[in-house]
Amino acid sequence: MRVYPAKPKTVYLYGTCLVDMFDPEAGLDAISLLEQQGLEVIFIEKQTCCGQPAYSSGYTKEAKSVAQSQMALFDEPWPVIVLSGSCGGMMHHHYRRLFQGDSALAKVEQFCERVFELTEFLVNVCRIKLEDKGEQTSVVMHTSCAARREMNVHVTATELLGQLDRVTLKEQAYESECCGFGGTFAVRHPNISQAMVEDKTRHLSETKAALLVSADWGCLLNINGAFEYQGHSMQGRHLASFLLERTGGK
Amino acid sequence: MSSANHISAKNAILAKLRDAKARAIPKETLGYPVWQSHDNELIKQRFIAGLLASHAEVSCVNASEIPKTLARVLNSKGCEKVIVGDANAEQGSGEFFPAILEGAHRIEVTQFDCEFEALKTSLFTEFDAGITHCLGGIADTGTLVLWPDIAEPRTLSLIPPCHIALIKRSTIVSNFAQMMTLQAWQEKMPTNIVLVSGPSKTADIQQTLAYGAHGPSQLVVILVEDR
Amino acid sequence: MSHTFNGPENIHSQAKAALDDPQLRQNFRGAMDYLQDKRRSAFADPDEESKIRELSEAIRQRCLSKLPELLELLDANCSRNGMVVHWAQDETEANEIIANIAQQHQAKTIVKGKSMVSEEIELNHEMAKLGIECLESDMGEYIVQLDGDKPSHIIMPAIHKNKQEVSDTFEAHLDDFTPTVDVDELIQTGRTRLRQKFHDADIGLSGVNFAVAETGTLCLVENEGNGRMCTTVPKVHIAITGIEKVVEFLSDVPPLYSALTRSATGQAITTYFNMISSPRKSGELDGPLELHLVLLDNGRTQAFQDEEMRKTLQCIRCGACMNHCPVYTRIGGHAYGTVYPGPIGKIISPHLMGLEKTKELVTASSLCGACGEVCPVRIPIPEMLQRLRTEAKNPPKPDAIAIEGQASASSTLESLAMKGFAFAATHPKLYHTGSWSATKLRGLMPNKIGPWTQCRTSPKLASNTLHQLIKARNKRAGGES
């Protein structure tokens, strides 16, 4: 189990490329949540992408150069808060692997130790206490595979929702099963990916939850796109936006 | 294939492996979490529960009750012909042979006292049950440990449709690792050791459990109190 | 239905066929749900589970770290015990060894216990060419062989069929069989026919689960008793195994055995654990008179060369990775077109068959990690897949030996795209101009973008990027102060 530091004064935000282009509001909402915790949030303008697309396709050298450029942006010893379990897993877990046998490994490991996914940071470092100001509702949450298996943060995301008094968390069948996104997997093996996302959307909609939330935009691109294609009204939102809205910060 | 080929294949494989220059990892110091108890009653209970769970039948008896218990089992299973080990073998486990012969005296008993080939066909077609001793038992999983020998060959517990096993309570230990270590198996491995946990079974068709796949379809354990 | 086994090159069409077969989908989902439940209850205590996995991984890594020495010790001890030990570099050599033994005994029939290595060398097919019949005796393998098919799972070979389909198979191939969906009756049918085969066979052939170097002992794990039959009844027993199955000490066996059965079928123990150290000795009355051990390389030394890929060889063949794999659950074992399907198959097959044939296989994973999470010897399967993808795209590193099929998936176009991506991602100005223009031009996003939109609408870009929103926010904040 990971050992968490004491709450700092300042943090970096790592927005991720998907939030940047598809749901920038979620980025602002995450900043608000962190600021409500009394933190100063620094957004480094030059940040781009964690390099996962190259890494998972087997372009290790390219991924390594991207990793190097991203790490160089975050000099101060402040925590780096990532708005996705998947990119968090890349930066916390796989950056180490990219630099195995490299003289920079020790420095890379120090960086990796500073990387936190948003929900784990809110729960385990900020010890956040949410006050639910919304109406009674029900949600179902999808956790990305990296968030669950590399970062172990499905626990913290669930805990955050549990703090909301008037929100009922519904559990879908095969909750821990992959939605079929997997980056280039979805286009390289479209039929298998389709079978997976069709099962996922069915299991989610069968809960009859009013809302779908997730802390990963990769999965949401996949799931939301499939729901819309099926003519289903369910559309997932980033957990940060949902939390901010429930606590009256929006 | 010539022996030259054999040597070259061996050398080629070993050369490739050595090329990798793997660094030998020393023996780990990690513990093995496995069920263990010093309470003889608990050990007995777990042993029996495990066997029952894997569909075996268990009777607990005193040594003097073996003949009548065996007679009852043979009668209830409708056994007319049974095969047992060689009561006159010079070596091997045979403590209960007199009791076995007494218990089976009403039916036809064959002793396994010749080469397998002479008995092979009858083993497949004639005998209703095979009766054996056990080297010991494993409480953790409800397992019999058979150590076949000259007196009690391997096929006794394998080919007849019912296997009746006699086991002394004092030979039951907590777990498999413990039995190996206590008896220093690594110094004296016999031709064959078999661990038996229930009658043969399979779930190969639609995950549905069926007993009597290829080996015995019934396992009867007579647990002899000797403590 | 018989499944043609075209190979991993055709995984796309094979997967499509499987996905379009609702009965097959239902059979696999049902079976995987069952096996997942069984494993879950076998490891009820997570702390115990993690200790067992940690220990099993350590044992396997230690044994592999001494592999050449342990193989020599195994050879010496098995030979001393009276076995004949053979070494085979590939399937051809292995088949030659077995054919020679069979011919020395004028054998007409070989009755087989379950052995995935024998599938690997296509033993049945090769022996048939020489007029030697190989008969599968594991119930699942027997059903599959009647169909002229291949196993779809490494421990449950006929898992793709339901009981009605098994009855149909029996009806098509067996005389005097009355169709039934009673599983006991189906099993009794197999039992009756196979007992005669055990009785008659000239040679018994089996795999090996653990080969103990210290004592020269072969350990076999099974429930049915066919493994014991094959290794006890015929006059000759041939055991065949991959060179990685060797363990150092006898005491390494209990924890690995427990990890294996609990991970595979959720059993605390199997019905039989058969430990064979020698052929029939003088004075003993049964057991085979001759016992041969065939040690097969077939690509394993290649995996061994590299410290990271060596972990592939830790595998104890429990099948838990496939039981928990969302891809395997949906496409089943045959679609992979390899002897070993599922996640473990994706990382072993490239060493057995080369990366050229298996390059599509290593991409057929979302890297979800469900396999690595349940692996009893903690093989980091997703990392192995990432590594193999890298090897498939790139030439070997300067100090490394090329693996078979190295760089066979390299594509100039994709490589350019990835280099372009890396260039942009390391040049923020260029990158942000790109994302900025994408959001500005979002109206131009096509409705159909390749295979993505075969079941999804195209992604909806926001009207501004987070970078722009933050700039605006900071400007406002600056203006207010």
What does this structure look like?
The complex is a heterotrimer of chains A (250), B (227) and C (481). Chain A is of the alpha/beta class and 250 residues long. In chain A, 49% of the residues lie in helices and 12% in strands. Chain A has two domains: 10-124; 137-246, Rossmann fold, CATH 3.40.50. Chain A has helices spanning 17-22, 24-36, 52-56, 60-71, 85-98, 105-113, 118-125, 145-149, 154-162, 185-188, 190-205, 217-229, 239-246; strands spanning 10-14, 40-42, 80-82, 115-117, 137-142, 167-170, 211-214, 236-238. In chain A, helix 2 crosses helix 13 (239-246) and helix 7 crosses helix 9 (154-162). Chain B has 227 residues and is an alpha/beta fold. Chain B is globular, with a radius of gyration of 21 Å. In chain B, 48% of the residues are buried. With 481 residues, chain C is of the alpha/beta class. Among the domains of chain C are: 67-302, Rossmann fold; 422-480, no CATH class. Chain C has helices spanning 11-19, 22-42, 46-65, 67-80, 91-104, 116-120, 123-129, 139-146, 163-173, 183-200, 226-232, 253-264, 300-305, 320-323, 326-331, 342-353, 355-358, 370-374, 381-393, 412-425, 428-440, 466-480, and strands at 84-88, 109-112, 133-136, 203-206, 210-212, 217-222, 236-242, 246-247, 272-276, 290-296. In chain C, strands 1-10-7-4-2-3 form a six-stranded parallel sheet, sandwiched between helices. Chain C has a four-stranded mixed sheet with strand order 8-5-6-9, sandwiched between helices. The longest helix of chain C is centred in the first third of the chain and has 21 residues, at 22-42. Classes of the chains: A alpha/beta (250), B alpha/beta (227), C alpha/beta (481). Chains in contact: A-C, B-C. The interface between B and C is large, with 80 and 108 residues. Chain A: Pfam families: CCG. Chain A: InterPro entries: Cys_rich_dom. Chain A: This is (Fe-S)-binding protein.
